[in-house]
Amino acid sequence: MEQLVRHSDLINKQLARYGVKFGIYKNGTFNERLFPFDAIPRVITARDFERLERGLRQRVTALNLYLKDVYSGAKIVRDGVIPADFVYSSSGYLSPCEGITPSKGIYSHISGIDLVEGKDDWYILEDNLRIPSGASYPLIARDLCRKASPITFQSNHVVDNRNYGDLLRSVMDYVNCGGINVILTPGRYNAAYFEHSYLAERTDAVLVENRDLFVENDVLWYQGIDQVYRVGAVYRRLSDEYLDPVTFLPESLIGVPNLMAAYRAGNVAIINAPGNGAADDKGIYYFVPKMIRYYLNEEPILHNAPTYLPFYEEDRKYVLDNLNRLVIKDVAEAGGYGVVFGRDLTKEKLAAFAETIKAEPRRFIAQEVIDFLDLPIMDEGERVMRKADLRAFVLSGEDTVVWPSGLTRFSRNPTSFIVNSSQGGGFKDTWVLK
Amino acid sequence: MLQLEFTYRTSIEFEYPATDHYFTLRCLPRPSTTQHMLASHLSLIPEGAWSLQRDGYGNLLQVGVCRAPHTTFSFQASGRAAVNLARRRPETCHPSFYCPSPLTRPSPAMEEFLREHLPSTGSPLDQADALMRAVYRHVTYTPGSTSVTTTAAQAFDLARGVCQDEAQILITLCRMAGIPARYACGFTVGEGATHAWVQIWSDDRMWYGLDPTRNQQVDETYLTLAVGRDYQDCPVDRGVLCGGGKQVQSVYMRVSEL
Q: In chain B, what residues touch A98 (CB-CB under 8 Å)?
């Protein structure tokens, strides 16, 4: 481990050479930043991982069943488990996806589940079922770490995580409707372009932009240099609203016209399915434990952070009474934006915020602030403790499997709880022990 | 029962040739218990292949592409339908028709309007009928005062709009009152352009049409193309293309009783 830490600078230089960058749009300009790597790994014991694995598989299985239900009549709404308003007012619910059953009935092929380790237990913070990014960072970092310090991996019994590409490929192959696999990127100005190209390499899929694709006779085609290929699965790395300008935003210049028609006809798998935002809305998060009981008839293995919905009168009262110690999240925002800690607000701001909550209760959720277990990082040669979370990657194909690794992100600012890469944090490797 | 014969045509003239023109149309009437299609036909200029699909609301989609350069694009739907409201049957109602949608979110002003005009008794159909009459009085039909992205709340504040706005205002009010309602677009006997109205789901589990623009319940002279939560779910034609320059669009519609 010490040897690994000594090689930190070298590994970071290599990451820069490989182009492991994170793009950020700020005030209308695009800046690429290196994603700082800290060499001290997060270590998860075999016993802890076994429980996480069971809990994550259970959660993602329920979320997939929920998505299938929402877009085929919403029995869970008719049975009164989730109020209709929460399902259909969610900005991620897309009516053009109504009635479409994707290949093999899978909606969320790649789920990025964000967790934090509290002092007592793990808590789920967020489900990301649209296009969760980040798996490529620990993947390439592990590769470089093994090169920098092979002995570290001889003396520690770490589960090999370099199978992510194979896992992803088997998911693509499983849902493929006939034809090649492609990864559709918006292009090199996308925040996660490094990842798109890296995953294409690791899965043997063709990295394409929209102008390489077209739809004819309800089939998606790839215009190669030599010939035209039928596409059976598209791992798209652009968001739903830009996917098909004939169905969604007409001004999208990065989408594929009539892609939804090929999808509706069952001729192509879209990974992840469009419309998944209906299940990873911060408001729907509150209902995930209820989904697990409803669809699986099981008790949730992993817990949500204690969450309140101001939409319900009882919860609203609690939230307004305890605003100064809760964390409030805007359900429509992502990437660490729209998160407010009550304790950081002045009296006037608290009062104003309370009014906003009263006026738009459906817009917010409130959570108890979790007592994080801090992780050590090296800061200019010194070992210091910082807040960190874990994004676990769960892949759903023939089986639902948890990648034995994950993206550990930490905040470099000692007082910040927000670890999102778009907010300037760094990352670590995540070791699962044998 | 009425037999209706219909012709609907949209033509777009381009300043420069357009290419890679992808389209998804909803210009053929949707089959339903009260609307039986005896014949239906779609012709395209330039001629080209298209496929027939069905969306989640049971509407028919005509999907295709015209890749070659063209300066005119035209589609013509025609056919015959038998409309028979006596064949109305109980149906299920999609839960989303109970809830606000992007263009039908309530506003405080509409809440007040609802309190004032919602009868305290009567069937959902009677209540919706009373609301329809109130909307008809509130909104002055004014072409050009709104656009396809105008929300119900905006049109309500303006107190002006076209059939789309009046339909969306009535839908919003019905849903606020707990009456499931959906947007319908289609043709009515006569000449002109497409029309929009409202369907509500009453306590006998059947759908009834209400036309707030004409202040009347829908009869057998109405032919439904598509239904959805609001206008966005049932556009008659959507497309994207390359080139083309300025476009001039013309629409022809004629429906007659046989």
A: 55-57, 94, 96
